[in-house]
Amino acid sequence: MIIIEPGSHLRAREASLFERSESPKETKQGNIPKIQGSQAPHLSSPHPPLRSLRRSRYTSRNNQHIQMKHILKIMALVVAISAIWISLLETSVIPRSYTWLLPVYLIMSLGCYGLLMVGVGLMLFPTCPQEAVLLQKDIGEAKEFLKGKGVDVGSD
Amino acid sequence: MELADKAVGCFLSAISLTIFIYYTFWVIILPFVESDHFIHGYFLPQEFAILIPVFAGVALLSILCVFVGYVMLKSKAKKKKQT
């Protein structure tokens, strides 16, 4: 009996599309069994399991350091801005009725900035129509192949 | 499909830019304009500049909490039905 991991040929195709396949999720699989025979001619080789596993552990530890420094930077910025604002209030440069204006304004502008980034990202999203067509063809071939081997593929 | 995405993205960024410009004008520029300028008619009084974002933030947080609670209850009911 041939043990076929569902979607393994698609993952191999993904590996050829995105060269930096360092995500820890993909490397958990270990040895992906090759589909035997000549039924899948356009497959690339399966994942190199051990090398990318070692690399993913190193990058995740590095990631934690980078996240810590980032948080410290953000907190320092917040403390500095609040210090400036409170000093301005205390020395009566700005009347007390304006106390809440700056924090609310900063939060509002942060929300607006996030929304703007989402909108801009949506507008500039890169789609690959040729790859989409090829992917659909791959899915069709895989479904036929599996049906021929007697494996139950889901309904369309 | 890409056109729908682009339209939604354009709409979102337009809304965010409008809100940002209006709010900046309201909070930062308007206090330095004399009281009897015509532009004051287009902006609500200054107390609303704080009330409206705070109100919207509180509403957003409460909607999020309600949604999270609803999802948790639904998953618990599903688990009870399975076992």
UniProtKB/TrEMBL annotation, chain A:
The membrane topology noted for this protein in its Swiss-Prot or TrEMBL record is: Multi-pass membrane protein
The pathway to which it is assigned is: Protein modification; protein glycosylation
Q: Where are the transmembrane segments?
A: 71-88, 100-125
Does Membrane show up as a keyword for this record?
A: yes
User: Where found, per UniProt?
Assistant: Endoplasmic reticulum membrane
Instruction: Identify the Pfam families for this entry.
Output: DPM3
Q: Which UniProt keywords apply?
A: Endoplasmic reticulum, Membrane, Transmembrane, Transmembrane helix
Name the residue ranges with Basic and acidic residues bias.
15-28
Cellular component per GO, a single term: endoplasmic reticulum membrane
Q: Which GO terms describe its biological process?
A: GPI anchor biosynthetic process
Q: Which domain of life is it from?
A: Eukaryota
* Chain intervals for the UniProt region annotation (Disordered): 15-53
Could you confirm whether the keyword Ubl conjugation appears in this record? no
The task this protein performs is described as: Stabilizer subunit of the dolichol-phosphate mannose (DPM) synthase complex; tethers catalytic subunit to the ER.
User: To which protein family does this belong?
Assistant: Belongs to the DPM3 family.
Q: How does it assemble?
A: Component of the dolichol-phosphate mannose (DPM) synthase complex.
Q: What is the protein's name according to its record?
A: Dolichol-phosphate mannosyltransferase subunit 3
Q: What is the lineage of its organism?
A: Eukaryota, Viridiplantae, Streptophyta, Embryophyta, Tracheophyta
From TrEMBL, chain B:
Q: Which organism is it from?
A: Dioscorea zingiberensis
Keywords tagged on the record: Endoplasmic reticulum, Membrane, Transmembrane, Transmembrane helix
**Family designation:** Belongs to the DPM2 family.
- Topology versus the membrane: Multi-pass membrane protein
User: How does this protein assemble?
Assistant: Component of the dolichol-phosphate mannose (DPM) synthase complex.
**Spans traversing the lipid bilayer:** 7-29, 49-73
Q: Return the protein name.
A: Dolichol phosphate-mannose biosynthesis regulatory protein
Role according to the record: Regulatory subunit of the dolichol-phosphate mannose (DPM) synthase complex; essential for the ER localization.
